[in-house]
Amino acid sequence: MDLHGYGPHLLTGVWLTIKLGLLSLVVAGLLGILGALAKLSSVPPLRLLAQIYTTLVRGIPDLVLMLIIFYGGQIALNQAGEAWGLGYIDVNPFIAGVLTLGVIFGAYMTETFRGAILAVPKGQMEAASSIGMSQALAFRRILFPQMMRHALPGFGNNWLVMIKATALVSIIGLEDVVRIGDMAGKSLHQPFTFFLAVGLVFLALTTISILVLRWAEAYYGLGAQEQ
Amino acid sequence: MNFTLIANHTGLFLESVLTTLKLVGASVLIGLILAIPCAILRTSRNPLINGPIWLFTYVFRGTPLLLQIYLIYYGLAQFPEIRNSFFWPFLSQAWWCALLAFTLNTTAYTAEILRGAILTMPRGEIEAAKACGMPSSLQYRRIILPSAFRRALPAYGNEVIFMLHASALASTVTLMDILGAARKFNAMYNTYEGFLVAAPIYFCLTFSLVGIFRLIERRWLRHINPQAA
Amino acid sequence: MKSSNKGTALIIVLILVALGALGYVYYKPQMTEAPVATTPTTTQEPTAATPPVAMTATPAPMGGGMPAPGQKLRIASEGAFAPFNEIGPDGSLKGFDIDIALAICADMKVECELVKQDWDGMIPGLLAKKYDAIVASMSITEERKQKVDFSDKYYNVPARFVAKKDSGLTDTREGLKGKKIGVQRGTIHECYAQKAFPDSEVVLYATQEEANLDLVAGRIDTTTSDREALSGGFLNTPQGADFDWLGGDHLDKSCHGEGAGIAVRKEDTELKANISKAIADIRASGQYNEIMKKYFDYDIYGDQ
């Protein structure tokens, strides 16, 4: 496969895609846990906030959300910056991509974690509080490990969807592997070659992810009873 | 937000909704029809039958839809052999390219969903069917598939909604779907407000679909959720 | 879980996350573009103490738009419009527009930074202050002047059509009736195609490169763009071997405008004046001609 010298540049794109995916995963995971706790909390405004969040994200295509956050977000930030006398606050496109993907997939993770938390038998937390464990300790040692086992399939699925969704950032100009392949292919009039290469990259990423997830499921499933 | 400007272009947006619905509707329908044999073949234990279908679903679920669209629209057109072939009158048009890409993608996902539903079939029902002497084809038609469809419904509903969202990508290959109309509007007035018009349109379409699927679930999954009215 | 404890924990975590996000936003990691270093000295009057370059929040510039000392002038270009702007194998911007931009920066004695930007977001990005100037063969038109200001022009070439050799078409309204004309979305050529060829189907593309690709694929019958972009970026390349001009020059001032200029925000009056002066300077010094000769055999500045 002759990449006409664009090989190294393509590799930087692969690296950016991976970085983008992993960082967005962290943001999404964090937002997911917060969202799940909010949805399950007994504070109605929190529940409402979380509900609005997940509803909006589920109702609007990822690409449209990304375009709105990227363009609109910058303008809103500018206006906020000027109002507070801070001048122009630049948001690096990479950060914008991470935040956007994180916010979008945070909503999906909210549903995943919510289902997972609900799947842990109530008795576990009751036992924890009955022996005097604090909220934080109970969450960390009792709820979270058991929740992870239930959350893993959904979490893994969201990751697989997200790594492919990173392709969308090519449309907001971020130099991920899809964009570089696109630009190279179009400028050399050989789109097929480059898109094929990019496709192989994604298949590799997907395969590696699936293998890692299978290992994680086995690890977290240790000691669990088969239903 | 300039509402008068937007109101002047209602026709543009309305037509784009029609384009989107046609694209999503056609690809989902064809995808569903194609997915049934794919799912059945995937349950076979023969690697010669299972293998190629597995490869198909693996590739189409393992790569981004955007890439699949680009490959079919720009990639295939690169080759003179394809340009002179029988397929060219179709592949030369963006509509058919997008339809092909979406259909292949949804076929792959739907096939896996159906396969999962078929494999988690309660064994007892199949054994009862065999005990009655039903041939395999009749088993599929009367016992396995209806049950599989019902159990696949929640996941399939998600897949259809995903297809609606994915249709936004059709705008990258010159189609005037909702996002395409938004981009045209943006280019005319050097703004980004077109996106703020597209978002509520997608929102309404999405939740109409959610509502429709909820109604279908309420009827078809009645037997496993007796409390729901 | 006791509701009050859960709520408190949640609020604390939310605050931490918000602080973290704010910190992220303020920290500006390395730009993906290697900064193009020109003479680093600036001749601006001393402003208030500038924050270290790592900080992203810049003090509001002293009006006029020139960058404060230590700040770079950010210039955006598309990179999909050879030979004016394109992307090389190493991913960097190059072309006539880029060379002119660098020459102008040198003349103004400011340090420049090149930013890649898709055409669709070119003006919104300028207004959102992602960069300070656009040097991307953007034509000066009344419509655009409603949102941004332009420097004096730095070149002016007419538009032309290309089509397959022996296509049998003519570049007139009747000649292209029912045919497909590909144009880049949001350009003067889209305006012209829709205005002068209402009987044809105008197909919109995100870049001229994509329109060229579809022309080769036979999905469109013709495309129109800047004459030099079509010759240097298409006809003179291997892909354009079977193609040729379809007719001659087209110039419709109401659509095509007055030539390519450099766009800046309306409030950046000093920047605009300095850029126009710099253009005049490099024309007088012969540097403009040197750059022009690298790409073209003849004068593209157009009539004065």
Quote the beta fraction of chain A. under 5%
Rg from Cα of chain C: 23 Å
Q: Give the class-level CATH name of chain A.
A: Mainly Alpha
Work out the largest interface and the residue count of each chain: A-C, 49 and 50 residues
End-to-end gap of chain C: 78 Å
The domain count of chain A comes to 1
CATH topology of the largest domain in chain C: D-Maltodextrin-Binding Protein, domain 2
Question: Biggest β-sheet of chain C, characterized?
Answer: 5 strands, mixed
Number of strands of chain C: 13
CATH architecture of chain A: Orthogonal Bundle
Helices of chain A, by number, come to: 8
List strands and helices in order, with pairings.
The complex is a heterotrimer of chains A (227), B (229) and C (304).
Chain A: H1 7-40, H2 44-59, H3 62-83, H4 93-119, H5 122-130, H6 135-165, H7 177-187, H8 191-220
Chain B: H1 3-8, H2 10-42, H3 47-62, H4 65-77, H5 80-83, H6 88-91, H7 94-119, H8 123-131, H9 136-166, H10 178-189, H11 193-220
Helix pairs in contact in B: 2-7, 2-10, 3-7, 4-7, 7-9, 8-9, 9-11, 10-11
Chain C: H1 3-26, E1 73-77, E2 80-81, E3 85-87, E4 93-94, H2 96-108, E5 112-116, H3 122-127, E6 133-139, H4 142-145, E7 149-150, E8 159-164, E9 180-184, H5 188-196, E10 201-205, H6 208-217, E11 222-226, H7 227-235, E12 243-250, H8 253-256, E13 260-264, H9 269-285, H10 287-295
Parallel strand pairs in C: 1-5, 1-6, 9-10, 9-11
Antiparallel strand pairs in C: 2-3, 3-4, 6-13, 7-13, 8-11, 8-12
Helix pairs in contact in C: 2-9, 2-10
